[in-house]
Input
Amino acid sequence: MELHVVIVGRKDLAGQLYRQLRGAIESGRLASGLQLPPTRLLAEQLDISRKTISDVYAQLTYENYLIGKVGKGTYVNSRPIKALRKQNASELASAETINAWRTLQSPLPDPTLTGTLKREFVGGATSKGQFPHDEWRRCVQFGLRQMQRTVGFYSYAEGLPALRSAISQHIAFCRGVVCQDSDVVVCNGTQQALDLISRVVLEKGSIVAIEDPGYSPARLLFASQGAKVVGVPVDEDGIRVDLIPDQTRLIYVTPAHQFPLGMPMSLERRLSLLNRAKELGAIIIEDDYDSEFRYEGIPTDSLQSMDEYGIVAFVGTFSKTMLPELRLGYAVLPPAILEAVIKAKQFTDWHTSTLPQWALAKFMSDGELQKHIRRCHSIYAGRRERILSRLNGNLSPWLDAIHTTAGFHIAALFKKPIDLKLLIELARKVEVGLYSIEGFFYQEAPKNGLLMGFGSIETLDIDPALDRLRDILLQIDQSDSISQSGSEKTVSVLPISSALQTRAP
Output
């Protein structure tokens, strides 16, 4: 290890070393269990006698700051770190702003925070079992070789030209997006794309119209920047354009696969939205988060491809097609905001890491992304069909699936009142992860329903998981009927969960 000690002059050498080592241990800079350099090595580095070092080590050992281990060396002993008086947030001039950020709700439920269950219906997650790790490893090695050839300075804020070209070709083929390489900005996921666009479009108090229900991380992001976020209801055709308020500057939509309900925006509604945005002078963000996976009907091109006014920013991500941990996304920007967004990207993080950019460019140009999408499409289609079959079968007394043609989640609404919190709690006891759509509603009255993601759950786990869901619903129905009959005033949760646990394999 490298120990930071400064010896000034040639007086009180032992005292200088003692005070610095003791202070470092008390402050926590030298962590418990850390091995100190041998006395001979430290004496050479500090140009003082070995005996002086040994005496200081011995004194600190006597005071229980250090502990010697025979044949191994000298280590920092376990002891409480001296508590230093730190400034409280309430004492700062920025206390109000800090508190506003601190109290923001978490964007989405994350199963990794509470421990992943055996069978997860979490939305937006993919299965690593389908990812071509060997091919990706080869592309990463290619990226390392490319980085060796550079001069070792910073890269392009807008992204590597090779990746921007690969992205523009991919989305033109898959989604009908009309763009040139120069229109593409590489980002750290969709969330950064939304952040950059809103930075250059919004001011404090600006009106942002979002779908309600809608993608809550986008809503929270816009609100955190001081915007006035207005939830606009959706119907079977998409966002209610007639309810978008005047003076709106930014409109956020998911037209290919409305999040979280799943229906596509109709052609008439798309045209109406474009005209309304032009009238307002607003920018539309089209979040095309998972529409590479389409299962039925005629594929619809992107909203951006219909844009004759230059007002649609098309954002996409590789988190859904590849792995969320890669944090790679992009924005295809209209000329009016392109230069400003590139400047904002440069000011916030200069550029996205070049290694994954090189790797992804190679992965796409070699056709590996399309192979992976086709392979996943076949798997997801089977999982989707299985879930729909059950929702329309023995789960139909309770749940009604909303028709959707793309993506890898299905929203299902309850046909009767149900204690959804209890249902989710009981499902967790039998290793089934269920997630409510309630948190995606903003100003509209929440509906009782489930977001059934099928990207990460294995196909063979779907029926066992839905069997448990059916059993829980039957037990809750039975408990409700007993309660309503007056035979029992209250029903304990324990018998339900215990009965379910006995059925788990």
Summary: Residues 459-485 form the longest helix (27 residues).
